[in-house]
Task: inverse folding
């Protein structure tokens, strides 16, 4: 039984932050985390390797690919998992001065499925072909990946989780053969010995490549609001 098994994070205004790796946070990250606790006015659920198990639903365990993912891709997967099963808010650990209460109110008082900041022109996932061209042209219809609020258990979150786990199903044999070897591992990156990484996931494959097309499909059911954190000095 998880400690938060029945939590409706939208109603309780819970804001999730994730740190899934073994490495220590930098001073800039720690300062950014403190601004989230201090400024958002929310109950902050900080999930790391020690606390993650409290949020995994026994009837919906993490995907078998989980142990093989990079820390970055673990965070990509978890935000999807949490938004479907719990809803509520998510933010990257980046400096914020925003109070989130009005954003939670906006979504709760509407019939929409999610709220986020308008995606930046250069923030759209590098999807190829006509769909990618359309998404980049219509970037203003999208929301960004770094901070948002979702209702739990909606057709939007269900499709997000289904597509994410279907990708992991396909990649699982390769992930077992070539698990991530560092937090930022991605397909083709050069390893310290100068050889390309055999890790089979591209940088945006598990999040932006799924999230942006899906948000575009559901764009009439999304609220845009200035919820974004700062995008400087967070490493």
Result:
């Amino acid at each position: 039984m998880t400690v938060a098994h029945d939590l409706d994070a939208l109603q309780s205004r819970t804001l999730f932050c994730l740190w899934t790796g073994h490495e220590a946070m930098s001073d800039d990250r720690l300062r950014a985390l403190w601004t989230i606790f201090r400024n958002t006015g929310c109950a902050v659920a900080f999930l790391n390797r020690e606390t993650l198990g409290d949020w995994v639903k026994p009837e919906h365990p993490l995907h078998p690919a989980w142990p093989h993912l990079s820390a970055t891709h673990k965070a990509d997967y978890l935000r999807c998992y949490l938004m479907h099963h719990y809803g509520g808010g998510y933010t990257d650990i980046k400096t914020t001065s925003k109070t989130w209460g009005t954003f939670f109110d906006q979504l709760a008082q509407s019939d929409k499925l999610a709220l986020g900041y308008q995606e930046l022109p250069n923030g759209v996932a590098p999807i190829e072909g006509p769909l990618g061209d359309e998404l980049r042209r219509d970037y203003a219809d999208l929301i960004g990946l770094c901070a948002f609020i979702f209702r739990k258990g909606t057709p939007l979150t269900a499709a997000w989780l289904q597509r994410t786990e279907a990708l992991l199903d396909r990649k699982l044999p390769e992930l077992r053969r070539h698990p991530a070897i560092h937090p930022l591992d991605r397909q083709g990156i050069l390893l310290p010995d100068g050889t390309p990484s055999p890790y089979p996931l591209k940088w945006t494959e598990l999040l932006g490549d799924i999230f942006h097309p899906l948000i575009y499909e559901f764009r009439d059911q999304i609220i845009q609001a200035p919820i974004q954190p700062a995008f400087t000095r967070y490493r």
